[in-house]
Amino acid sequence: MSQIQWYPGHMAKSFRELDKNLRQVEIVMILLDARIPMSSMNPEILRRLHNKPVLILFNKQDLADRKILSLWEDYYRQSGYYTLSIDATSPQSLRSIYSLVKDVILKEQVERNLRRGRQLAPFKTMILGIPNVGKSTLINNLTAKGGAKVENRPGVTRQSQWYRLSEEFELLDTPGVLWPKFEKTIGYNLAITGAIKDDILPLDDVVIYALKYLSKHYQAALVERYKLTSTDDVFEILNQIGTNFGALTRGGEIDYDRVYAIVLKDIRDKRLGGLCFEKP
Ligand SMILES: Nc1nc2c(ncn2[C@@H]2O[C@H](COP(=O)(O)OP(=O)(O)OP(=O)(O)O)[C@@H](O)[C@H]2O)c(=O)[nH]1
Ligand SMILES: [Mg+2]
To answer: Looking at domain 8-172, what is its CATH homologous superfamily?
Structure first.
């Protein structure tokens, strides 16, 4: 894991900028990967968001294990956050985000403004999330035709910019990448889901970790997909996949690199069903 660089200095700067930007928004949206709701969260962020409503969006719900995901929703809700599971590519998800913000999270403020005869203004928001979690997809899909123009209104710092997405949302751009610390299994989870590039961690370690998790928590799906006769030993699983899928070298040996690629692709393409690699 030493190849992954986690710069405390960068992080401190990002957090200082976050603190400044926070004052300007009405609601903070944190995008998590629904398959790894802990590894895709920087816990330090939550400690910084006092007094602002926080909406935790579990994105890529279409790839996740619904049962486990609902446990995660409960977990974060019990800690005082609003939660919603979404698929950032689906129009229905986008509508439900807006309804939740307007009719629940900022309801009082909306009603107060309407009572005072003010028009409903776009909600000022900030969208935080690790790389590849779906921020651009969400922002693009929240953007109405003709939206996403940078308004001529600078944020507090020079780096910050406001974007008018639609009648519904104005977005303050995000301050840097707020990775969690790559401790323990977090790096593996980020690699499995594609948040970090495949060449950052040794692929054999990543896939072996994934297969161990799957054989413990998704044994039936694993057996079914790879026609396994036993799941007792992870190296035996690799051999069976290699044999059953013809991932062999010319000399007839198991081609492990191909086996790793097969497993990773299957996980990411949902060939093993909806998966979560963490439980609350
Ligand atoms: N299955 C599925 N794929 C999604 C979803 N949301 C985004 N994606 C895919 O995830 C990949 C990354 O999405 P982006 O929107 O580029 O992620 P990002 O957070 O902007 O990534 P960076 O710009 O690298 O920080 C793309 O291939 C998207 O199509 C989702 O809800 N479900
Ligand atoms: Mg992006």
So the answer is: P-loop containing nucleotide triphosphate hydrolases (3.40.50.300)
